[in-house]
Amino acid sequence: MKFFLFIYLFSIMIILFSIQSKSLSMSKEDGAIVYNDFCLRCHGPQGRSLTKTIPPLNNSDFLLNLKKSISIIKFGAKKPIFVNGKEYSGNSMIAQGLDDEEISDVLNFIRNSWDNSNETQVSAKDVNDIKEPL
Q1: For the chain, how many helices (H) and strands (E)?
Q2: What ranges do the domains of the chain cover?
Q3: Start-end of H helices in 20-112
Q4: Dihedral (C-alpha) 64, 102, 77, 58: value to the nearest 10 degrees?
Q5: How far, in Å, are 12, 63, 64, 103 from residue 8 at the CA level?
Q6: What are the angstrom distances between the C-alpha of 56 and each of 19, 99, 113, 133?
Q7: Class of the 23-128 domain?
Q8: Phi-psi region at 117: left, alpha or beta (left = phi > 0; alpha = psi -120 to 50)
Q9: What is the reported pTM?
């Protein structure tokens, strides 16, 4: 009986722990790690992009559309996008294979770094809600 009670209480703790969301501050810290691993080499340390063919992330009007921002990280892009009035080819924008939490973390980092400021936290659920490319 004690064994089953232990398993039950342990299961409840795991469920409660997994439901508890991470703070925006922690998400941004984790997002910085994802950015440095997957985004830095093309978008640069200040999010201004390293070439004229890569869209900037700093002061990017594209980031104002959360669904499209999630979609491009999650699925990549096959068609051109417009950032701050300039057209960028979608051919270089490939999905990086990040999971929903990594995508939400990197978006929270990008949307709150450099000259960007958006305190609305992106959640893994927001990312999971996008099921196909936009």
Answers
A1: 6, 2
A2: 23-128
A3: 24-38, 40-43, 66-75, 100-110
A4: 40
A5: 6, 43, 44, 32
A6: 34, 23, 12, 21
A7: mainly alpha
A8: beta
A9: 0.82
CB 35 within 8 A of CB 96: no
Separation of alpha carbons 93 and 71, rounded Å: 11
Contacts of 87 (CB under 8 A, 6+ apart): 80, 81
The helix or strand, by DSSP H or E, that contains position 87, with its residue range, turns out to be strand 86-88
**pLDDT tens per residue across span 64-119:** 999 999 999 999 998 899 999 999 987 767 888 999 999 999 999 999 999 999 98
Query: What residue type is 98 in one-letter code?
Result: L
- Element (DSSP H or E) covering residue 12: helix 2-19
